[in-house]
Amino acid sequence: MARAGLTAERLTRAGAELADEVGFEQVTVSALARRFDVKVASLYSHLKSSQDLKTRITLLALEELADRAADAMAGRAGKDALTAFANVLRDYAREHPGRYAAAQLRLDAETAAASAGVRHARMMRAILRGYDLEEPDQTHAVRLLGSVFHGYVSLEAGGGFSHSAPDSQESWSRILDSLDALLRNWPAGP
Q1: Is the terminal CB of the chain with fewer CB neighbours within 10 Å at N or C?
Q2: For 10-49, how does the pLDDT look when each residue is reduced to its tens digit (9 = 90+)?
Q3: What is the pTM of this model?
Q4: Any idea which of 8-12, 64-68, 98-102, 158-162 has the lowest mean pLDDT?
Q5: How far apart are CA 85 and CA 72, in angstroms?
Q6: Rounded to whole angstroms, how far apart are CA atoms 115 and 25?
Q7: Any idea what DSSP says for residue 188?
Q8: How far from the centroid of its chain's Cα atoms is residue 34's Cα?
Q9: Is the distance from CB of 49 to CB of 150 less than 8 angstroms?
Q10: d(CA 47, CA 181)
């Protein structure tokens, strides 16, 4: 019989908290069982495996990010929307490093298609509509923005910018200004 009060949702949230504390890679059903002071076997009525737990944390993180980005972007366009979206990613990574790492987990095609990752893609494309980019330039721009945002956030989280001036916030602001200028003057394709 399952322990009273334990549900897949509660375990997922606890797993997400654990990921923020110890790192996403360290999250396992065994670690979660220790957190609840229960036997590992008692969690298998709610979770299939550690991979299932990680997938659930990923889905939670994608949903949280999409909700925050949608709220931040509401009523904004162009550079304001671009900046709002980028700042949500950066702030979320700072606040929830394990969940942010979880949001990068590669999902199978069916799970990905049903996830909030689809909302992320739609929001990114909505931002780019403000710059009048058509295909295939829009896809190139999505890839560029994703690479810059996630690359910067990852380097910053790893301490890559903490050893020198200027402050990383100043660099972040200049990068966003540069991306806006690039998108407004997107080079013509071949």
Answers
A1: C
A2: 999 999 999 999 999 999 999 999 999 999 988 988 999 9
A3: 0.92
A4: 158-162
A5: 7
A6: 21
A7: P
A8: 27
A9: no
A10: 47
